[in-house]
Amino acid sequence: MLTAAQSHPVRGEARSAIARAARISAGLTVDAADVAFEEGDVGTAHGWSVGRRVIFVARARGAPGRDVFRAVVRVTPRGDVIAMRGVTNVTRTPLDDDAGLVVRPPYAAFWTRAYGQVQTASVLDLRGARSVAGGWRSNVSMLADTGSWRGFERMDLRLDRPARAPELSLDAARATLADPETHRRWDVSLADGAVEHGDGIVVTRGERLAKPLVLWLVDRVRAVAWIGAAPVAWAERLAFAARDFGRRLRYRWFGRETRSAPADDALGGAPPTTRGTEIARALSGDTDWPPPSIRPRLRTAERWEGLWRPVELPWLRTIPGAPPTFYRTFIRVDSDRPYTRVVIVAADMRQLELAMRAGSEDPQPLVGPPGDGRLPRDPDVQSRVVAVFNGAFKTEHGQYGMMVDRRVLLPPQPRAATVAVLADGRVAYGSWGATRTIPDTVTSFRQNLDPLVADGIENPARRMQWGFVLGATGGGLESLQTMRSGTCMHAGGQLLYFWSEDISGRMLGRAMNAAGCAYGIHLDMNPLHTGFHFLRIDDLAHRRFQYAELAVEMDIPDDRYVYWSPKDFFYLSLRRVPSPAPARLAGATWETDTVAQPAPTWLPAIATTDVSLGGTHRGRMLAVDLRRIELRFRAGLQEPGARTPDDTTISADDARRVVGALMLGLTRPSDPAGLLIDGRVTSPFVPGHPALAFDPNGVRVVAGELIPHEIQWALQGHALTDAPPRQDAGTTLRPRAALGFVGTHLVYVWGNGDADGFATALRTAGVENGVLLERGTPLPPEQHWARTDDAVRDAYPQSVLYLLARPPARRMLRLETLFVP
Q: Structural domain of residue 704, as residue ranges?
């Protein structure tokens, strides 16, 4: 691997002199091998009179890692440094280590080590930004951030699997990153960022946004070290206090303000009646959706206050047959400002996935490169995105943690309020543990402040400042009124987003508590930083996308989160609805409306299809997703050894969850098939024939010897392959059934056929071990379904496999459970 000095030769005396000058003028520790000139040979006269731009890796005093710096040096022909000016830290990531600097004008490249591994490398085009949005304001920003008026173009290479000690090189057309340990190599075009060789890498290019003048001035003033954030906070406090005073005075004199509705009527119609909601919930099994109505907190309620209205945008993507994905409402909680509404949108997390993205400027990372500030360019993601909303505070306002897809930008702060996404797609809300360790199950997280509400308690940490505002203590907490946003995990398992154009932090927490939040977190505040968009993307290249604001007062550009966002944000996407059929038969035509379904009924877990049983014989195949269905085996009333109701009848609690029942046959005393009832062998097992076994590890087909004392229930059938048939079982054509398992699915086949036909049908579905339910007594295979004329019974003459609806999987949980020892 080439060092900076080898990639662009500099006389050793000059490198050492530059390293000494950096130490003296800026207090930096620099290795002479990590110094390189950015330009080519510009002549000695230019070098000592005007100066030459140099780039190097250095460690600031007290910093744990190194950063990349730029400066201008005046050097003599002998390599002595006359002066050094404009020393600028261009990465500013104190918690990682930038190394491996390679320079081949006009490009420089380096990789970043964090948490003992390298996950990113960066390439800088030192000629400057090709296009500058915002005119002179962007040039001023680039001068402050990069040390030059034109700045540089940045391209970040992010690996899906970290490397320990990669090798980085540049040639005239490409950057090459290699991992000697895994023998992986990636070639990336310097011209357009295209990946020419290798996979498992994402290339993003930096982009500077044109900011409104006021926001730009605020950011630039905050960035000046001797000014800082306090004067800006003081000015904001005065402005917001004056605005609040004027509004309260106007309300006192003139009464109700004339203003637009808090949510555009284009989002949907009137809320359903209470009776209509109850009927819809009963039919679909959605007992927690939509959330319960919110009781108004002020003496007089406004029209539809606290009542959930469905969001029914005609262009918004939805899951077919599912209820509305979003509901919205508003409440008022501030008796001193009854004109202030808090707009709330509820998201059904059974239908949705949550993800997050880092902005192109904020959070300003302490580890690695910044985010790309836009939705993923993966077509699959874009085809499922349905909503986006703002993230949390800037890094300078608390350095609250953020990690995106396992890449840390800001390390977690112990006990901070957190929203996290887990590897299995679940979402966790809660306070981080008393550690900076990141659990392995967490893939992304965002933190901000303390909780606004937790378990019914508003502001449990007794925080007195919600956002960096000068003097926001005591009465200041009450009086600071501005645009604020937040999100919470509802007690019913939904995600809620809150927004108000005029509210304090304490009142935002009160609104969350009134809405039934189990845990709530404050997000961003102030105009241009808060907003929620419903979104549909059709073609980003041609700017074909549709959006709608949650509230008409929101002041977020329509393409803010689609193309380039300076600040972090969250987005919601439709979940991929899992097929109720085994993967091997995903292409078959499956029917889900001919059988009963567990709640929610719009997410089917049981399906049937036609299947060949050999020759002209046809049968039916039933697929059951065991992630949503639980199994109970009960012996038939006529089975030998069935003594008590517990042997033959399911419990009352199970009966309330029954979806269907599959008949498993009945043995006969003259030719018994094995049966194990609640640990008792009531009919001997025939060697060499498979058994359907129920044990603490679940349900399985045992093809070999059965060990009764390890199994609670077991029922033996007929071998489909290898073993000889019992008498004529399986060889003649007659109605029968077979059963097996593949992955997370139970497969049940019935029809008129022989053993070979059933074996072929099960193998087609991927079943390796199956059992023919031929147990001696020629009873026809039957299935009974709930909510039909042929309803499920408590007990049957033959043995039966009951299908029970599992309680719906909770897609949200408390984060604290991940830190329990």
A: 583-805
